[in-house]
Amino acid sequence: MPKTFWAEAAQWTVHVLNRSPTSAVKGKTPEECWSGIKPNVEHFRIFGCIGHVHILDRKRLKLDDKSYKCVLLGVSNESKAYRLFDPIAKVVVTSRDVVFEENESWNWGRSNDEVKFDSGDINHEFSDIGETEHVEEEQEDEASTSSDSNEGSESTLPEVNNLHSDRGRTRSAPIWMQDYVTREKLSEEEDVQDLAFFMSQDPIYYEEAAKSDKWKNAMDLEIEAIEKNGTWELVSLPHGAKKLGVKWVYKTKLNESGEIDKYKACLVVKGYAQKYGVDYNEVFAPVARWDTIRVVLALAAQKGWTVFQLDVKSAFLHGKLNEAVFIKQPIGYVQEGK
Amino acid sequence: MKQAPRAWYSRIEGYFIKEGFERCNYEPTLFVKIEGAKILIISLYVDDLIFTGNDIGICEKFKSAMKLEFDMSDLGKMKYFLGVEIQQSSEGIHMCQRKYAQEVLDRFGMKNCNSVKNPIVPGTKLTKECGGADVDATLFKQMVGSLMYLTATRPDMMYVVCLISRYMAKPKEAHMLAAKRVLRYLKGTIEMGVFYKRGIKNELLAYTDSDYAGDIDDRRSTSGYAFLFSNGAVCWSSRKQPVVSLSTTESEFIAAAACACQGIWMKRILNQIGHSHCKCITIFCDKSSTIKLFKNPVMHGRSKHIDVRFHFLRDLIKDGELELKHCKTDEQIADIMTKPLKLEVVERLRGLLGVRPATNVN
To answer: Between B30, B49, B75, which is nearest A292 by CB?
Structure first.
């Protein structure tokens, strides 16, 4: 076989190796390890052997040949079929209906030169599906003459196709697909709109939030609350102490009728970096049980009392910590001198 | 930071105790202050707090004191708390989760579904292996989780939600259909919530019930209870029992014990928040043999293994902490917590639990 089929040979080799036993995994083939399905090897044939590709009845007359000779190249990636090379028409065909002669091989000597010249424009033909696709395979020795030969080869193509494939069929999307919008038809603008539909409006990064006034105000409020409570002081990091990162979290708060209540910016410590015993000892959250809340409500109803509600602003800043915690300065509010 | 909530709790707890509040021993987030005849009750939920009292003056004083001490935003009358909408009127207090329910329906694509009247088809038996292919477990878990939160104001959905939550590990199509039916039921009853009537002087009532070997996979029973106060349910539960019971009497017994535990806790809470004339809780049970088992201390072959719970309940009855009474099966409110019921029974029991639409309140 000419060397132009080197890539095909390599692909077939890999295909076979992946479905063969190996010492790397005991009792399994690599394919089974990957997919979990025991691979079928019934379709294995000798690479480069002769295959007789069946010609569909409607594409031939009564006295024409029922098949034509091809050389096996491997299996198709797209469908459950073999990939073969037709040395006469110089095209790659894909077909399921093939009868093999495994001990025969093509006499390349006769047409070796021709193949060498033309194989740069190996055309893929899917005789089953009836679609024709032109794939120019990249080849180093063809690089110099690429542009001219490409055009030339396409002009010879129709003849080849008329031989074996059905060109009469045009594919159109099924009727039920008309209700759907596929990605290809979307303009870029619509794409962006789609994306916006799925995204929440709250910014994720400081850089994003800093652009709008409402978030800037929210952040100012938060920093103000922190400063007012005397939560932190600016110190230099003691030797050996670790500092925790901080980040901003933005959230639009809605009220009970779904309208925007307020924009809230929270400065949070990246608590996941904290270690038990080092940065904190005990944790607890004062969460009331629903039962309790309902008992209070029921009692209030029975006695005719009114229930009021209060909300503590930046509640967690009021707590006093026993442990010393070092944090980084927040973005946007860095003061000089660490 | 991980310790922030704890630090906050000790701060506010310290403040409340300094101000003369008493922390409830059985519920660390409940604080009560009694000044002569005046009483102020506070329930804390991390940074949200609700408070009520019999005197407007003491409420206002507390509010302004809190504003001085902490940075507070005053939300006025309780309207919206943890996703629950609360309506306070002269008739009583109604709570529902309409907005959250709508969000749940939107999220699972059931916005325009046809509603049904019954959360579960009567006679449904779900099993681990019952029909159909596997479904997306994550989606199923999300559904169950959202519905779980909705049971905070919907005792009528408690049983179904607990039932489907048993199959979260490996949900099948049949389980998904059951979950979707709950969502369709929710669609039809989106405005429903518990209503506590104003000015009703009644005691805490408890109903307990169980089914027998309701779970086909491991033949455990389901115990359910519901507590009524001010004509509305305050506390309810439906849960599969931890042990297999050998008779209906035994499974009712286990349910009664669970109910008693909750009852004692409720009684202590009520006593602490100034409803002190609550001495003895009445538990209604529709199985006379269970009640007889308490009254006559006979130990025979069929009941001797129910040892611990038996003594626990007997002691409570002897001390006068609770009382077990018989009621007819059709008055048994806790039925709705343990089995799939027919439509008219569901509607009747739902009314008895105080579940009604928000619009009917005014």
So the answer is: B30
